[in-house]
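From the thread on structure requests for the teaching lab: each student submitted one protein with a one-line request. Submission from student K.M.:

"Model Palmitoyltransferase from Tegillarca granosa, tokens only."
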Amino acid sequence: MQAMVSKYMRMLQGVLTTTQAIDNSIQRNKEVYNFLCLLNYGGMFYVLFITSVVMLTSYFVTIPFYYTIASEAPESLWQGRLLALYFYINIVLNYILILYGGVQSIYCSRNDLPMFDVSTHEDWTKCDRCDRFVPPRTRHCSICDRCILKRDHHCFFTGCCVGFYNQRYFIMYNLHGALSCFAALCYLKSYLGSHYVELFSEEFFKYTLPYALVAWILGYVAFQIFLMVILFYLILMTGIMCAYFVIWQGNLMISGQTSYEFVKGNKYYQSNISEHLRSVFGRYWALNILFPMPQFKQENDGTTWSSSSTKFL
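Reply posted by the TA:
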């Protein structure tokens, strides 16, 4: 188990190092910048598309089929639909708060006038692109072209950076996204098992996209079923990505690091798990799992950090 965790962390560090190298090369290549901006809009469109399609399909097709036909329990239909609404509302609210928190996390941009403040602390550094002194853990995003408080990474699915004020919503967005994808897959598996073939059977190969495509072209499979098979893969891929982001961000949150600090091996701001949780979620951090809690503020302003040279255990 320990070997698997170590292998995963090495793989994650390699991904983050590659991401950092791409970020540093953006300003030197206009074509790369334009492509990443296009990817930004594409990622946001994908989130809107997959969220809407999965919600509508589950609410009106797969959930009613599961409770009224597959399990023959129509009196429980409202429970399934209520669960779908709960996940949908959480996902939408957390997504909106990610965007709002992304704006709050902006410390400065290159369009701001240089600020020379006598209260600037010794641990502040100067951003050459913005020509301003910035707090510790604040880094410049080449895509947003702004300095972000406690910048972790730029998320193409939200079109903004994950920083101090929206990391909590980013984690919860992906947590509810992963759980909702798992639930949607269960309902969709039941639907396809009745209208197509069972997933865990000798005919599982019929779930491969090439087979489903050829079967639809030849008229052996209805177009609706072919779309359901495509949706199955989209939900599976989205769920895996959301689970990955939860593991990634959860590890960084527990260790008290950002992605950049993890790559660089910087452990200056590590304390204990309780303080790390309150720094991200606020005092009543557990309530954020149930529902977004923006009224519970974090115990910091994103500009002042206490450093420690003690290794986190």
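TA comment: The first helix runs from residue 2 to 25. The CA atoms of residues 51 and 200 lie 26 Å apart.
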